[in-house]
Design brief:
globular; about 25% helix; single chain; Peptidase C39-like domain-containing protein
Length: about 220
């Protein structure tokens, strides 16, 4: 399936959307454990592309300035401290975050959603994701990769069809069975993520992140069309 054949998707112009690629360290290795940061960047770029973009606030600049929280090394991302400011930031922007249907309003509430709020059954959670996309709201799908979900990966959901989600990523994770549908030379990581892959890896650590706005569907993503 080509990009223009995806039947259900957010009102995004993929030619002008602020795609970014995961940064590399001083020796050329891809920096790990930044998928949550990148997802929140894409979410905020969708809702406010002027304030959050590759030329204004990109993921690396967001981290450097501590806008989402306290910058943490890869091994300590699980503490959630790098997202300490997310609840307040979203509230200030009129956005509502839910993790597996739990409304997030504080850092400790955020950690409760991360560590203790189990997902709904697979089919029910997919239905909620599809509903959010149809309403023009941002969704992140958090998929288990290794060790029963203790290692996971969250991605921004662009759209869906009968068998797949289509997600925007900033790198291709080698242990996840999804497919880059843009050419290798194309730096946009637009990926086809089969429902079968998600279901196979569905554990109590899976999460659906839904970020909603009171803005009407007709104006969502208007600057990106």
């Amino acid at each position: 399936m080509t990009l223009d054949q995806i039947p259900h998707h957010l009102p995004i112009n993929l030619e002008t959307f602020g795609f970014v690629e995961r940064e590399k360290d001083s020796v050329g290795r891809t920096v790990k454990n930044r998928c949550g940061r990148d997802f929140f960047y894409y979410a905020l770029h969708y809702y406010d592309p002027t304030a959050f973009s590759p030329s204004t606030l990109c993921p690396t600049e967001i981290e450097r300035r501590g806008i989402f929280g306290i910058p943490m090394p890869a091994a300590l991302v699980w503490t959630g401290l790098s997202f300490r400011h997310i609840p307040r930031l979203f509230k200030e922007r009129g956005l509502t975050l839910r993790i597996n249907s739990l409304a997030i309003f504080s850092y400790w509430n955020f950690m409760r959603g991360m560590l203790f709020k189990k997902p709904a059954p697979f089919e029910q959670e997919i239905a909620e994701i599809q509903k959010a996309i149809d309403n023009g709201n941002v969704v992140g799908i958090d998929v288990a990769i290794k060790f029963g979900g203790l290692i996971d990966h969250v991605m921004f959901v662009y759209g869906y069809d009968n068998e797949n989600l289509y997600v925007l990523d900033t790198r291709k994770v080698p242990w996840l069975s999804y497919e880059k549908i843009t050419p290798d030379r194309d730096k946009r990581f637009i990926m086809k993520l089969p429902f079968s892959t998600i279901k196979k890896n569905w554990t109590r650590w899976n999460r659906a992140w839904i970020i909603s706005s009171p803005t009407s569907l007709s104006s969502l993503g208007a600057a990106n069309r």
